[in-house]
Amino acid sequence: MKNIKPLLIAFIAIVISVASLQIMLLFVFLHQLQSLRQYEHTQIDPLVKSLVQVKYDVVQIQQYLTDAAVTQESDGIADAKKNTRQCRKKYRGNQSIGTPDASFSGFVASQCASIIDEWAANGRHLRSKP
Q: Buried b vs exposed e over 10-33: b needs ≥16 C-beta within 10 Å?
């Protein structure tokens, strides 16, 4: 009986230590989760909103060019050129697009302008086909 009491005390101490360690790990993981959530709201959400706007602008230009190709009228080309110039100006001059990180935002803005230029070039090619 005397040998069981120290073993029981050691077992209880080990159980308490393991439970304390698990609680500490839980708090560390919750803190990391909160940090990720904050990162998502400050970095990712603005970028997604900006990319949705880019998608809208690209589709708008594509629509003008598709209409011009189908109707064989130059009004759509003029509208597409005007819209392309506006979008290019908006994205090339905007260094705050996407995230608060200026270097990454500048990269995203230049990529958006490149996408718009590419779509416009594809549309002009489509218009020139018989």
A: eeeeeeeeeeeeeeeeeeeeeeee
Nearest to 93 by CA among 107, 82, 115, 109: 109
Angle between helices 102-128 and 45-71 (to 10 degrees): 10
Residue pointed to by tokens 């935002």:
105
HEC string of 8-35 equals HHHHHHHHHHHHHHHHHHHHHHHHHHHH
Report the pLDDT value the prediction gives residue 50, as an integer from 0 to 100.
75
pLDDT-derived band at 79, boundaries 50, 70, 90: confident
- Identify the pLDDT of residue 17: 96
CB 87 within 8 A of CB 61: yes
Look at the pTM and tell me if it is higher than 0.70.
no
